[in-house]
Amino acid sequence: MDTFEKLYREDKKHVSLWEKNYTDKEFYKINRNIRKRLRKLIIKKKCLSSRDHFICAMIYHHGFTIISSKKALKHIKIAQGNGYNKQKWLIASIIDRLLQLQDKPQKYGTQIVKLRNGKYKQYVLDGSINDKERMELGLPKLKDLKKYLEK
């Protein structure tokens, strides 16, 4: 029987295996299956805890679609609004992914892409968020992130 924690562990496992073991298409199929089971669990439970909302946000975030990103944003806002402040960076990551999927510049600089040469590139930033705001969400300063990506 599925539980929020079980689906969360399953999602984390597949994310960690993704780059070396799955094509993007295979991963998206796996995530679609997890999201389908998650929807059933949400309907069945009805009243979700803050932790449940966080888990929903994380799983939907890995869906890489505008619809799943909007669901992820809804759930993380509920979780954080109810006091679940672990992993504050997730809201920034979800917002950036949603902007990226809409071909808009990201705000926080959380979305990167691995290039064919093995290096990483950061998607375009809109410059509206400063380092203080990034650090409040547990994100590194932009200059530190750029140094990391250049390695």
Number of helices: 7
- Helix coverage percent: 55-70%
* Gyration radius, rounded: 16 Å
Termini, distance in Å?
Answer: 43 Å
Major sheet summary line: 2 strands, antiparallel
The secondary structure category is mainly alpha
Question: What does the overall shape look like?
Answer: globular
**Can you list the strand order of the major beta sheet?**
1-2
Q: What is the number of strand segments?
A: 2
Q: Could you state the order of secondary-structure elements as H and E? A: HHHHHEEHH
Portion of residues in beta strands equals under 5%
Task: Please give the domain count.
Answer: 2
Low-confidence stretches: none
* Mean pLDDT over the full residue set: 92
Written description of the protein model:
This protein has 151 residues and is mainly α. It folds into 2 domains: 87 residues, no CATH class; 49 residues, no CATH class. It has 7 helices and 2 strands, in the order αααααββαα. The chain has a two-stranded antiparallel sheet with strand order 1-2. Helix 3 packs antiparallel against helix 4 and helix 4 runs antiparallel to helix 5. The protein is globular and about 45 Å long. The protein starts with a helix and ends with a helix. The mean pLDDT is 92.
